[in-house]
């Protein structure tokens, strides 16, 4: 697993914990042995992804909700909901990462951490958001 994918996977785990238990980011950063055991670059990227996703969660959830016809956010699997939040945060707020890379990473993480059908669902939501924002295919 590449360094940035490792950071995204760590970020997803912390976003999941925050979603389920409401654990504050600083607390998760402090006590995550997985986070503490990785090089500084991975750790700082993971922390930036978590902090940014949580900071923008309301806006990200609104984008997901508008795109996910017939799916209430609260009824989505927790993993899928947080993969979507994470990917959308990166697409909108981490412009140095090319959009196709962000989408591919989200799909790979979904294949690893969620159900077999999740990657199709996530791809559809991300693609729809990008199309609605006229961002499809544009490189950062």
What do these coordinates show?
- Helix 1 (3-21) crosses helix 6 (78-93) and helix 4 (40-55) crosses helix 6 (78-93).
- The protein contains eight helices and no strands.
- It is mainly α and 140 residues long.
- The model has no long low-confidence stretch (mean pLDDT 92).
- 74% of the residues lie in helices and 0% in strands.
Q: What secondary-structure arrangement, pairings included, does this model have?
A:
Blueprint: H1 3-21, H2 25-31, H3 33-36, H4 40-55, H5 57-67, H6 78-93, H7 99-113, H8 118-132
Provide the helix percentage.
over 70%
Q: Please trace the helix and strand order, writing H or E for each element.
A: HHHHHHHH
Summed up, the helix count is 8
Shape descriptor reads globular
Number of strands: 0
**What value does the average pLDDT take?**
92
DSSP strand (E) fraction? Answer: under 5%
Unreliable stretches (pLDDT < 50, length at least 5) are none
Gyration radius over CA: 14 Å
Q: Outline the biggest β-sheet.
A: none
- Broad structural category: mainly alpha
What is the first-to-last residue Cα distance?
A: 23 Å
Descriptors:
140 residues; mainly alpha; 0% strand
């Amino acid at each position: 697993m590449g360094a940035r994918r490792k950071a995204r996977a760590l970020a997803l785990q912390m976003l999941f914990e925050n979603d389920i238990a409401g654990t504050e980011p600083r607390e998760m950063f402090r006590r995550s042995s997985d986070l503490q055991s990785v090089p500084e670059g991975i750790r700082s990227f993971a922390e930036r992804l978590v902090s940014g996703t949580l900071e923008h969660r309301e806006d990200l959830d609104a984008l997901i909700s508008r795109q996910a016809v017939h799916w209430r956010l609260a009824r989505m699997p927790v993993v899928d909901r947080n993969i979507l939040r994470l990917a959308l945060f990166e697409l909108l707020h981490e412009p140095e990462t090319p959009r196709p890379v962000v989408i591919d990473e989200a799909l790979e993480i979904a294949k690893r951490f969620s159900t077999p059908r999740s990657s199709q669902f996530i791809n559809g939501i991300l693609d729809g958001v990008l199309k609605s924002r006229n961002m499809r295919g544009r490189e950062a």
